[in-house]
Structures are given as C-alpha cells and as structure tokens.
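Reminder: ligand-aware prediction takes two inputs, not one.
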Amino acid sequence: MKIRLKDKIVVLTGAASGIGRSTAILFAKEGAIQILSDIDEVGLKETLEMIENSKDKTSIMKVDVRNPEEVKNMIDSTIEKYGRIDVLIVNAGVVRVGPVETFPDEDYDLLIDVNLKGTHHTCKFAVPYFKKQKFGSIITLASVAAHIGQTAHANYCSTKAGVLGYTRALALDLAPYNIRVNSVSPGATDTPMLQSDVAKQAKDRGITYKEVKKEFESEGVLGRWATPEEIATGILFLATEESSYITGADLRIDGGWTTQ
Ligand SMILES: NC(=O)c1ccc[n+]([C@@H]2O[C@H](COP(=O)([O-])OP(=O)(O)OC[C@H]3O[C@@H](n4cnc5c(N)ncnc54)[C@H](O)[C@@H]3O)[C@@H](O)[C@H]2O)c1
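Here is what comes back for the chain with nicotinamide-adenine-dinucleotide:
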C-alpha cells in the first residue's frame, strides 16, 4: 500500500473527538508526524491510545483555539521542533442551536469565538511560516450550514458561512506562495457534536431523538449519516499532492444534501 503522508508534519485542532479523531487515526496510518490539539485533554489522550501504529510520531497539546497565545505556542513549538508544517487542519468547532429570538448571547459569542476567531487564530500564526517555506496545505472545516439554511441554526450557519468566505479569501492571499487553502463541508456526520445537536432539537421541539435523527438522515440523498471516517478521507485528499491543483475549493461530503 502506498503511504501518502510519510513523515509529513501535520497540525490538527479538535483532535479529541469525532472528525478530528478519525482524521488523526487515518493520518497516523498514512505515516504522518502529528501535533494533535484540543481543549479536551482526556479526549486527546483517548485519541492517542487509538493510534496504535505511530504513537512515537504523535504529540498531544491542550490548546483552546479561542486563546491566541495558546495557538501561537502550538504553531511556534511545532516549527521549533520540526522546522516546517506540511498540513494544517483547522477542525475545532462547536454547535449551538435554537431560534434567534431566544438565542443566548453567550452561545453566539462561543460560536463566533471558536468557529470563526478560532479558525483565524490557527491560520494567523501559521501563515508567516507557510509564506516562508512556500509549500503546504491548509484545510478548514466549513459545513453544509455554510451553503444552505437549516432550521434553528441561523447563528451556527453564520459562523460556518464565515469560515467558507475566510478560506476562499485566504486561498487568494497564499496562492503566490504555493500554499493551497481549501475547506471541507460535511453533511450530517455521526459525532458527539451532531448527537448533541439532535438531542437539543428533540427537547426544544417536544419530539423524540429518533424523529429528529430521521429528518437529518433524509437530508442527504443517500439517506443516512456519514461516518467521521468518510469525512477524514476527504481531508486526506486535500492534504496530499493528489489534490495539487485544488485551491480555494470547498469539498462537500454531504451525501448529496446540497445537490437537491
Ligand atoms: N458532525 C457534523 O455533522 C458536522 C457537520 C458539518 C461540519 N462539522 C464541523 O466539523 C468539525 C468537527 O466536528 P465534529 O462533528 O467532529 O465535532 P465534535 O464535537 O465531535 O469534535 C469537535 C472537537 O472540537 C473541540 N473543541 C471545541 N471547542 C474548542 C476550543 N475552544 N479549542 C479547541 N478545541 C475545541 C472539542 O473538544 C471536540 O473535541 C467542526 O468544525 C464542525 O463544525 C461537523
């Protein structure tokens, strides 16, 4: 089997759960040297335990992407140790749902601070190094919510549409430096994030978890949720030279949700 990321230096945020965890496991199999970060230290350690074959090539770091100093330290210490970053995956994210008229300000602040400003912090401190080294791939996590409206998701949608715009514009800025910048837009993906989203909606609407889940499943034309591994394979594609002519693009892995 061809190893696609042998000794590539990969920095990944949000690695303690869901899509980030599956990406870390897949990238380890592909030979990457990884710096995995998350606000959740316990979950990070679990991810490390799941990486059987290359624990020696993997470091974990507790980083809150809302905190610029912590993010800067993650980027600077990676450069100090390895001298470069081949792939930066900006994955950490949160969801909060509810109607706008009662949406708590603190929930909107959290969405903006993690999804939007967290994305910015992670790119901001890495960009000077990327510009110097003149190679590399940056991958952000947008969402179907960046492309279409979703009931009770106005605040979340606004942050993911922001991530999409940020990614496209950054791709233009970094193209002269041979850096590719792309986003992935997952549809409904079976992770703790989606499970909490469905549970909250079921509670708010007075219907069962199963009923809301069924609604989400019927959104994609494939009629089921994605596994986090199915999103990780798309991230892998954008990380490797197999996607060498792709920049400023958004890869929708949504089971056909947004084609309808
Ligand atoms: N699951 C889905 O259906 C879905 C759909 C579209 C987009 N996405 C996006 O994919 C990405 C991953 O989501 P997931 O489904 O794996 O969710 P998840 O909740 O399973 O994982 C998200 C991770 O981000 C971490 N995180 C949250 N706040 C953080 C902070 N301030 N600093 C550092 N880490 C923080 C969490 O601790 C968690 O480990 C997110 O950006 C999400 O918006 C998910």
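The chain has a mean pLDDT of 96. The radius of gyration is 18 Å. We will return to this case in the review session.
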